[in-house]
Amino acid sequence: MKELTIGRNDAGQRLDRFLAKAVPLLPASLAQKYIRLKRIKCNNARAQRDTRLQEGDVLQLYINDEFFDKPSEANAYLTVTAPKLNIVYEDENILLVDKKPGVAVHPHDGAEYGRTLIDHIQAYLYAKGEWRPREEQAFTPALCNRIDRNTGGIVIAAKTAEALRILNQKIRDRELDKRYLAVVEGTPRPETGVLKGYLFKDAVKNRVFVTDTPQKGAKTCETRYRTLTKRGGLSLVECELITGRTHQIRAQFAHAGHPLLGDGKYGKLDPHADRRYQALYSYRLTFCFTTDAGVLAPLNGRSFQVADVEFVKTYFPDFRLPGIAE
């Protein structure tokens, strides 16, 4: 419990408005709940959110110490009172979340605190009592892979330090199989094959370029694909990254003459509808461990898939994604 004494400059304010300034990490909805539950009192008596504070009043705040920290990227999860997650799978070690397009996985320049995927994951685990930051020496639940803001799909979060260490190693050793769905313009020829090229990044323009011949600073890039169905001048393709380069699928298909639908950076905006995001989704994940996986060994051989993909239903309404046999 902490006590705050109201000084001359704070007198006359409503209780809820004072709390928003004095305890900025405490969300307004949670502050109201705590007032209702008498975990926030004024002069040891029940108060209301619109109580006018007087000089000399003493507030009793029965709330966790975390809320009294200064706002930062490390404690942005505290501003999330109702975590919004599409959970694909969860156990005591990991969490698989279906990230929707438009959601950033991490904050950028501190402008999105409380609205990113990692904020909601940490808030979810904090609310469940599975993560107690005041009791941890260093570990914080973390993401093992990233997906661009405007791309959707499965993101892996480690709930323990051991799981994080193992998953990072498995990803480096390519012992996870990730499959993507994309809608491209036209029909790739052949309908099943491998796109090969050389990719280099222009940091100033924040985009990549693909060439057919080696270039200074360029890295090889390969994407295996197969066409699943076609309709209305569009093709639904499944992609597997043989190499994992920035914007690889988007840039390689654009270079091949089949840009992704809605991709304004590497192709052109969707001519069929007002799409806000490129039609690209990391829809399936399979654990393919070839070496010891420790506590994650029970996941070996298992596949996980998102429930649905919006652009598949929109552009290929008669197509059904194959399910996963457990």
Automatic annotation (TrEMBL):
<dbReference type="InterPro" id="IPR036986">
    <property type="entry name" value="S4_RNA-bd_sf"/>
</dbReference>
<feature type="domain" description="RNA-binding S4">
    <location>
        <begin position="13"/>
        <end position="79"/>
    </location>
</feature>
<dbReference type="Pfam" id="PF00849">
    <property type="entry name" value="PseudoU_synth_2"/>
</dbReference>
<dbReference type="GO" id="GO:0016853">
    <property type="term" value="F:isomerase activity"/>
</dbReference>
<dbReference type="InterPro" id="IPR002942">
    <property type="entry name" value="S4_RNA-bd"/>
</dbReference>
<dbReference type="InterPro" id="IPR006225">
    <property type="entry name" value="PsdUridine_synth_RluC/D"/>
</dbReference>
<dbReference type="InterPro" id="IPR006145">
    <property type="entry name" value="PsdUridine_synth_RsuA/RluA"/>
</dbReference>
<keyword id="KW-0694">RNA-binding</keyword>
<comment type="function">
    <text>Responsible for synthesis of pseudouridine from uracil.</text>
</comment>
<dbReference type="Pfam" id="PF01479">
    <property type="entry name" value="S4"/>
</dbReference>
<comment type="similarity">
    <text>Belongs to the pseudouridine synthase RluA family.</text>
</comment>
<dbReference type="InterPro" id="IPR050188">
    <property type="entry name" value="RluA_PseudoU_synthase"/>
</dbReference>
<keyword id="KW-0413">Isomerase</keyword>
<protein>
    <recommendedName>
        <fullName>Pseudouridine synthase</fullName>
        <ecNumber>5.4.99.-</ecNumber>
    </recommendedName>
</protein>
<dbReference type="InterPro" id="IPR020103">
    <property type="entry name" value="PsdUridine_synth_cat_dom_sf"/>
</dbReference>
